[in-house]
What we know:
Elements: H1 2-18, H2 27-41, H3 45-58, H4 63-75, H5 79-92, H6 98-110, H7 114-127, H8 131-152, E1 160-161, E2 171-177, E3 183-191, E4 203-213, E5 216-217, E6 221-222, E7 233-238, E8 244-250, E9 259-267, E10 270-271, E11 275-276, E12 287-292, E13 298-303, E14 313-321, E15 324-325, E16 329-330, E17 341-346, E18 352-357, E19 367-372, E20 383-384, E21 399-400, E22 406-411, E23 421-426, E24 436-445, E25 455-460, E26 465-471, E27 478-484, E28 489-494, E29 501-505, E30 517-518, E31 521-523, E32 531-533, H9 551-563, E33 567-574, H10 581-601, E34 609-613, H11 626-632, E35 634-642
Helix pairs in contact: 1-4, 2-3, 2-4, 3-4, 4-5, 5-6, 6-7, 7-8
Amino acid sequence: MKSLFKIVLLTLLTLFTVQITQAQVKRNVRKLCDKAVEQIEKREFEKAIQTLNKAIKKDSTFPELYIRLGDVYNFTLESEKSALAYHKAIALLEKPDPILYMFAADEELKSGQYKEALRDYQIFMQQSKNKTLLEEVEKKVKQCEFGVQAVKNPVNLTPVNMGGGVNSEWDEYLATLTADEQELIFTVKRPRDEKTICAFCITEEDFYFSLFEDSVWKPRKPLGPPVNSSYNEGAQTISPDGKYLFFTLCNAESGYGSCDLYWSKRVGGKWSRPRNFGAPVNTPAWESQPSIAPDGKTIYFVSNREGSIGGTDIWKTEMLEEGLFSIPVNLGPVINTESEETAPFIHPDGTTLYFVSDGHIGMGGRDLFFSTLLADGSWSTPLNMGYPINTHADELSIFINASGTRAYYASDKEGGFGGMDIYYFELDHHLRPTPVTYMKGQIKDADTREPIEADIEMIDLDQNKVITSTRSDPFTGEFLACIRTGTNVMLNIMHPYYLFYSENFYLKKMASELEPILKDIYLQKPEKGNSLVLNNIFFEFDQSTLKPESFVELDYLVSFLQKNSKIRIEISGHTDNQGDDEYNMKLSVDRAKSVFDYIVSKGIDPSRVEYRGYGESKPIASNETEEGRALNRRTEMMIIDNK
């Protein structure tokens, strides 16, 4: 529509600018120009170029020929040629209309000629009195100024092709990765086959996956049914634990609109039948490009539904329970603009959002930005990821690994396997999210060693907020849970027929130093004599006063006792061997009593809880190291009766 509007404007412009010299134009040149206009209207662009070049050979001083040639190159996306043609027209006109400078600048901006575009926009602003166009050009001037500085200060970018195991002569794009970086799922646009449902499509989109084994990406395989179908599947996200796949399916009989969101769950190594999100997420509008946060609940997606600020906006919904979703909420004007925002990717840190926008100031076209979710629930001002990650062309999407060190994207740059290929590159430090590592293993019964399906949560103790939520596989007991660095994190594992299990993580290491935690966890039945360490109970230094971050685990303990009303427990306090025995004994008793007092204050019958202090008499590690002494300073819970 913009290009058609341009032709109408230029037609009026030409009538005004060439009428003085009309009598001097050769009749055959005029006829050729009119013929070219007809060819442009019929979208016969190659013929129009030939006609105009023929006319220019006959009369190279007729400015309208170059204006029309600029139009044609605009339509065929040859921006450099288009800008050059407009400038030739400008040079031939004694008093060129200022709008020609804007047209030339638009094409220069599209081709990354930021200095030249800035010059021509400034001439237009000096000469034009069109307020509407002046407002539009002001934003483009900012883009040019940003582009000039970005090119002067490029970020490091050394793309590495992911190889023949992933890429092919077809288009590969929209890569997603599990948190352990062992499985890659991506979209492939392949030629249609006899099963393709879309009657007018010459290609079909399907999901493929590749596994990382022996330091290489293995030959890819189609994800297969029931996820892949004869429709177009694409724009997918896999949950960090690899358990859920959320994706877009368009023009399906089960759909609500043109494109809808669907989900599938992996159980025992197999994907379930895809299910439509349903209302209120899917509407008769366009819903696409989901990305799930590590809490396992919050899903970001793109829609042009009613209530959008621009053409397409980023929204979020929460999975209240499996397959049931909350009313979507728009991310608001800090993220969304009156233009288009697409391709959201929420990092496994749960707070860093990467997305594509042509509304925020960038390099021209669609650029990649990132924003951080602040403690009050608002978003920080989006930052452009810089050049050459962003260019004058449109950027599609980006995916960042859990540790925040590596980015994955698609490009049709020369030297690939053909079409769009998936590449990765090391991410500049100032563009990185909060590093995340993961804990991976199996959950089993402590006695039988049989796998258990249990709920797993990582909780930010400072904010009492769930930052990771997942569940172990019911057939294998396998699990993977993200752990955000720089945060006091509590791991809590729950099953209604077992004692809960807890650990504490406070990782301060750099991303390059992070190592995954590989550990199998054995849950105990709530039987007499079984005990567990309450790893998230904290006291003020050398005191028995509970720190506020202890209340999260204590509340879980209270909930456990409420659900198991026949259980009686002992709370025991323990110290290391620093200080004299009498002092340590008193401190351990006082700390155990503080826990007792808290539990009773929450309504638990005092007769169900005993407390004792053991001082330094029951170490579980060596007191010769600080790590060992830290383990010995602990609070335990033991079941003393279960009727």
